[in-house]
Structure formats: C-alpha cells, structure tokens
C-alpha cells in the first residue's frame, strides 16, 4: 500500500485529531458479532459540539509497545483497547512501530456520555493521518466501529445513521451522514447526575440483555420501523415526530435492559426526576424531549430558543450536579497538537 507518513522532527509519525461524542436518538443496543462490534439493529444519532476528545498519536520507529494516557493518567484496560485499534492501522500501513497516545476529554469519562465513541473516532482519525493512510470516511467509520461500536457514528457530524449490515465480515455495517448540523441546529442540555463510571459497561450489558431479556426479539423486530420514523422526521425537520420516536426508543431500550437477569438499571433517582421535568416542560409547550444512554446522564434535546429555559429547569432538579450546553457539531477532524493543552 502506498502511504506518506507524517514524521515530526524526532522522526516519529505524528498527528492529532478531535472528535465529539454522539447521542443516539434511535438506540443501538445489542451485538450480532462481539469481536467485530456488529450491531443487531441500526441506529440514528446526533453528534455534539462543545464536548470533545482530543487525541495525539506518535508512532515511534523502534518502539516495541504502546504507551497510553487518558486525561494524564494510564489505564491498563483502556490501553489494551487502544493497542487493538492501533494494530488495525499498523496492519494496513505495514509497520510495527509502537505508539505514544495521549487523549483528553473535557467531559466525564465512561459515565454514559459516549466517551468511547469520541475517543476511538479521534484515535482512528489521528492514527490514520500519522501513518499517511488515505482512508475514506466510510473506511474510518468501519475501523472506528471495530474499536467501539458507536464510534462509527462520531466520524461524522450532525445527524448520522449507522446500518447494522448483513455481511458476516461487517463491511456493510457503516455509518453515513443524514443531515448536516447547521441544516437543523438543535441544542442539547446534558444533566450530569453522577460523575462516577458506570458499574456495568455497555458491552457486558448488551451481552447480558441478549442472553436473558425476554424482550430481545421484540427490540430487533421493531427497530426498522423506528428508524424509518426518525429518518423521515429528521429530513422533514419535524420536531414533534422526532421527540416522540426518540423518547420511545430510549424507554424501550432501558425496558429491554431492565428485564435482563439480573436487571440492568443505569438510571438514578435524579435521572427519573429529570425525565419528569422535561415532560412537564413539553406539556407547557416548550419544544424539548429527553434521551438517556447506558448511564445516568439525561440529555434534553430542544429548539435553540428553549435552551436557557431547559437548562434552568434541569439545574433546579435536586441531585443535578451540572448542566452542560451544546449544539450539534462536526465529525472527526485534524487539529494542531498545540490544542491538546487547551
């Protein structure tokens, strides 16, 4: 394969990239192939703006092992996942250099805010650039999916659909953009109800659900109809339709997980109170709806004109630690290495 590595002054192959987390509106839950991170259902998401992961990658000739830090700290479990991802890129480039990987998040990690999605999207984007691999966005999406399923969506910005695919090798399980962020610029208020890492990770939770939940087949059988509704709502900029299908998909996913044995309960009491607050706002005519991933943080999606009212209402809920405000953002992209310190 022809490629043109990006060497810095020390001779290391170096690049830095940024990606944002994405929030699924029609949820992804369940894998048809764990090794390849192939989902049993498709999903539709929005990529956020002001939450980000910034990742610096240096492949060092002669270095035998990867050195990985996240927010300035080493993490052995995360380092294994990073090495597995780097191996995919090294195989494509035909090199065996160890890598130095430094990644930063400006939001809580492993707490239900899709830090793996932004983290591995940024890692694939930076690693491919450092090695000089000319990969299409679709190819980056497939590689990011191999590392963390929902990372397939964070390669793209705005509104994104990830197909579950049919092929055993997963080459057709790829994300694609549906609508640019600026074509329908909604806002998202994120109610932080806990900063702790969740006790049961998404992969373990999905496996438990598939093995024990009596609702698994119904979840799979109804997903295509949900995707059709959400896709049409996005393309038509129909807020009410998107609100209805998003809350429906969210509650359906959590019902599926709660019915596992033992049941998976990712919410806390504050999460539930935030749901009630959002529904009360909508009954008052405020254009807002909620969604919650595998964690306790609630995301309230709203019209730009409603963001201050929504933030104030969520901040008023006892137990809410902070409310983050973000628009919809772009996909993975190159950044100067100097931005890693900002």
What does this structure look like?
Pfam families: MDD_C, MVD-like_N. GO terms for molecular function: diphosphomevalonate decarboxylase activity. Keywords: ATP-binding, Lipid biosynthesis, Lipid metabolism, Lyase, Nucleotide-binding. It is an enzyme of class 4 (lyase). By secondary structure, the chain is of the alpha+beta class. The chain contains 9 helices and 15 strands. It has 2 domains: 169 residues, 2-Layer Sandwich (Ribosomal Protein S5, domain 2); 141 residues, Alpha-Beta Plaits. The chain is 37% helix and 22% strand. α1 runs parallel beside α2, α1 packs antiparallel against α3 and α2 packs across α3. The longest helix is centred in the middle third of the chain and has 21 residues.
Summarize the structure.
This protein is α+β, with helices and mostly antiparallel strands and 342 residues long.
Give the low-confidence spans: none
Cα gyration radius (Å): 20 Å
Count of helical stretches: 9
**Biggest sheet descriptor:** 5 strands, mixed
- Find the count of extended strands (DSSP E, 2+ residues): 15
Number of domain units: 2
Q: Based on the structure given, which CATH architecture of the largest domain is correct?
A: 2-Layer Sandwich
End-to-end distance:
36 Å
Q: What is the spatial order of strands in the main beta sheet?
A: 7-8-6-1-15
**Helical fraction:** 25-40%
Instruction: Provide the CATH top-level class of the largest domain.
Output: Alpha Beta
Strand content: 15-25%
Overall, the morphology is globular
Write the H/E string, N to C: EEEEEEEHEHHHEEEHHHHEEHEE
Query: What structural category do the secondary elements indicate?
Result: alpha+beta
Mean pLDDT: 93
CATH topology of the largest domain: the name is Ribosomal Protein S5, domain 2
Pfam family, one: MVD-like_N
InterPro entries: GHMP_kinase_C_sf, Mev_decarb, Mev_diP_decarb, MVD-like_N, Mvd1_C, Ribosomal_Su5_D2-typ_SF, Ribsml_uS5_D2-typ_fold_subgr
Enzyme class: lyase
Protein name: diphosphomevalonate decarboxylase
């Amino acid at each position: 394969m022809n490629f043109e590595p990006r060497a810095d002054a020390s001779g290391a192959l170096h690049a830095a990239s940024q990606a944002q987390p994405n929030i699924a509106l029609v949820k992804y839950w369940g894998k048809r192939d764990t090794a390849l991170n192939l989902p049993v259902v498709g999903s539709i998401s929005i990529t956020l703006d002001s939450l980000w992961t910034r990742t610096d990658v240096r492949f060092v000739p002669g270095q035998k092992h990867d050195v990985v830090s996240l927010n300035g700290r080493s993490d052995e479990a995360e380092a294994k996942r990073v090495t597995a991802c780097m191996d995919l890129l090294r195989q494509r480039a035909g090199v065996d250099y160890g890598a130095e990987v430094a990644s930063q998040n400006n939001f809580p990690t492993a707490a239900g805010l899709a830090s793996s999605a932004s983290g591995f999207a940024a890692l694939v984007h930076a690693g491919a650039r450092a090695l000089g691999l000319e990969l299409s966005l679709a190819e980056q999406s497939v590689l990011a999916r191999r590392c963390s399923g929902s990372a397939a969506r964070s390669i793209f910005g705005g509104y994104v659909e990830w197909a579950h695919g049919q092929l055993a090798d997963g080459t057709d399980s790829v994300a694609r953009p549906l609508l640019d962020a600026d074509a329908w610029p909604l806002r998202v208020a994120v109610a932080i109800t806990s900063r702790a890492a969740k006790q049961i990770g998404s992969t373990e939770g999905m496996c438990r659900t598939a093995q024990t939940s009596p609702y698994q087949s119904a979840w799979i059988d109804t997903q295509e109809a949900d995707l059709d509704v959400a896709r049409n709502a996005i393309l038509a900029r129909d807020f009410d339709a998107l609100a209805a299908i998003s809350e429906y998909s969210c509650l359906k996913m959590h019902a599926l997980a709660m019915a596992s044995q033992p049941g998976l309960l990712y919410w806390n009491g504050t999460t539930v109170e935030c749901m009630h607050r959002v529904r009360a706002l909508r009954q008052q005519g405020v254009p807002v709806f909620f969604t919650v991933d595998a964690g306790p943080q609630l995301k309230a999606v709203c019209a730009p004109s409603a963001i201050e009212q929504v933030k104030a209402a969520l901040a008023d809920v006892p137990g809410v630690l902070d409310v983050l405000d973000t628009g919809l953002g772009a996909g993975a992209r190159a950044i100067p290495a100097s931005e890693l310190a900002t």
